[in-house]
Design goal:
This protein is an alpha/beta fold. It has 8 helices and 5 strands; from the N terminus they run βαβααβααβααβα. 32% of the residues are buried. Bound molecules: thymidine-5'-phosphate (TMP).
Length: 204
């Protein structure tokens, strides 16, 4: 594995992925290890504009439009990734697995179509490792309830998130060596330790 890997943090709403990516970024900064941290949808100013459009509560795009918007946001991020690829560690809050989990497993868009479009955008870029954060229904429900504002994708019913999470797990089972599952129903500090120790191994 590259010593400057692409490391992705995946998981459904309330699964703690954003907490861990922030903790990892702080950890690397403290050690003066150069890295970049981006999110999807989002990243540069163009993809942040697309993010606002997709997640706006007043938007009611169909599932194919959503797919194409997520990919449009990714297309903008690819430029950022290419600049740092193999030169710096790249941390990404959601990436290609989210598209398969949400748009295919959650919404039923064709799997091969998503794969083809992702390959078209990524070309030679490969994700090295993924932390997949998992959350149970009870914690998902209570964590969503605590959010001050909910966006369009925070409002699906529980069965949708269940399908999406199962989709993520299926993807991780295809390449077990490249995934670390993080059970976010357990103690967050212990999980942080688990994630940081794994990061040490990935970059040494
Ligand atoms: P966030 O709240 O974690 O930033 O993610 C925004 C939402 O976008 C989240 O509900 C998952 C969704 N999403 C997709 O449906 N497909 C994708 O390809 C990506 C990157 C995110």
């Amino acid at each position: 594995m590259s010593k400057k890997p692409i490391i992705v943090f995946e998981g459904i709403e309330g699964s703690g992925k954003s907490h861990h990516i922030t903790a990892v970024s702080k950890y690397l900064s403290k050690k003066k290890i150069s890295h970049i941290k981006i999110r999807e949808p989002g990243g540069n100013s163009n993809s942040e504009k697309i993010r606002r459009l997709i997640l706006n509560n007043k938007s009611d795009f169909n599932k194919n439009t959503d797919l194409l918007l997520y990919l449009a946001a990714r297309s903008e991020n690819i430029n950022i990734i290419k600049k740092s690829y193999k030169k710096k560690i790249i941390l990404i809050d959601r990436f290609t697995d989210s598209t398969i989990a949400y748009q295919h497993f959650g919404m039923g868009v064709d799997f091969n179509l998503i794969k083809t479009l992702n390959n078209f955008l990524l070309q030679k870029i490969k994700v090295d490792f993924t932390f997949l954060n998992l959350v149970n229904k009870k914690n998902l429900h209570s964590r969503l309830k605590k959010r001050k504002s909910l966006n369009r994708y925070d409002k699906f019913d529980m069965s949708f998130y269940n399908k999406v999470q199962k989709g993520f797990v299926k993807l991780s089972n295809l390449k077990k060596r490249k995934y670390q599952l993080v059970n976010s129903n357990l103690d967050i500090r212990k999980n942080e330790e688990l994630v940081l120790r794994r990061i040490d191994q990935l970059i040494k």
